[in-house]
Amino acid sequence: AGYEDQCRGQVLYGITVNDPEYRILEPVVTDEMAEVALATKVRKNMTAEEIAARCKKPLEETKRILWDLAVAGVIRVHNENGTDYYMLPIWVPGIMEMMVANKEQAEKYPVMAECFEEYTRRRTRLLGPNTPVGKLMRVIPVEEAIDGENHAASYEEVSTYIENAWRLCVSDCTCRRSRRLMGEGCGHLEKDMCIQLDEGADYFIRTGVGREITKEEAY
After folding, report:
1. I need a surface site. Which of 31, 77, 107, 169 has the fewest CB within 10 A?
2. In the chain, where do the E strands start and end?
3. Residue 5's pLDDT is what?
């Protein structure tokens, strides 16, 4: 049981110890970590003080456990105006990529890669056919390729994202890592393949999973 808010949309499945949502957490999430994680809210930024009040643990203990959860990839943390905010992402895109992004952890527990693949294949098969193209995830063309079009909306231009970002980083490709750990790697480059922006970049840099880059390097 657990992550009630997050699992609401998956209630028709039920989650057991055999499901990827449980198996990916089992190697690294302790009972006390789970208690603190359950005091957070899905995709809602909260302070450590707010979370400590909900889980009824001392503030410093809550902060320590939240950092452990962040390093494990379960909770995202970013700093805004000097205050740390913590957020529980959805499973994908979110927790599972973040857990596999921790290379040392994923190499030690390859079951995480298996769960990432299994979850995406099983849980989203009903979602995909019923979601408008571009609603959840959308391929952005290389900006030079847009020049040949008669019209390009600003959100299709890579520069819009880069110029508006307040922090940027690059990290390894979790999709390729997961396939390699499953014995299905195809030799495609894994290192320094994915760019994160803003809160995501701040989280990846602080946890040591990503490397901060300039706008020039992002281009």
Report:
1. 31
2. 76-80, 83-87, 168-171, 194-197, 211-212
3. 47
Span 191-200, average pLDDT: 96
Sign of CA dihedral 208, 118, 128, 87: negative
| The dihedral sign for the CA sequence 73, 210, 200, 119 | negative
Q: Residue 172, exposed/middle/buried by CB under 10 A (0-12, 13-18, 19+)?
A: buried
Strands (E) across 143-203 are located at 168-171, 194-197
Residue 79, CB-side half-sphere exposure with 13 Å CA sphere: 9
Distance from C-alpha of 88 to C-alpha of 86, rounded to nearest angstrom: 7
Q: Which helix (H) or strand (E) holds 36?
A: helix 31-37
Contact 181, 107 (CB under 8 A): yes
Q: Measured in whole angstroms, how far is the alpha carbon of residue 84 from the centre of its chain?
A: 17
Give pLDDT tens digits for 163-174. 999 999 999 999
**Tokens 């889980």, residue?**
55
Quick one: residue 131, left, alpha or beta (phi over 0 = left, psi -120 to 50 = alpha)? beta
**61: number of Cβ within 10 Å:** 13
Total length of the chain:
219
Task: Please state, in angstroms and rounded to a whole number, the distance separating the CA atoms of residues 66 and 87.
Answer: 10
Beta bridge partners of residue 84, listed in sequence order: 79
Residue 93 and residue 130: Cα distance in Å, rounded? 17
pTM: 0.86
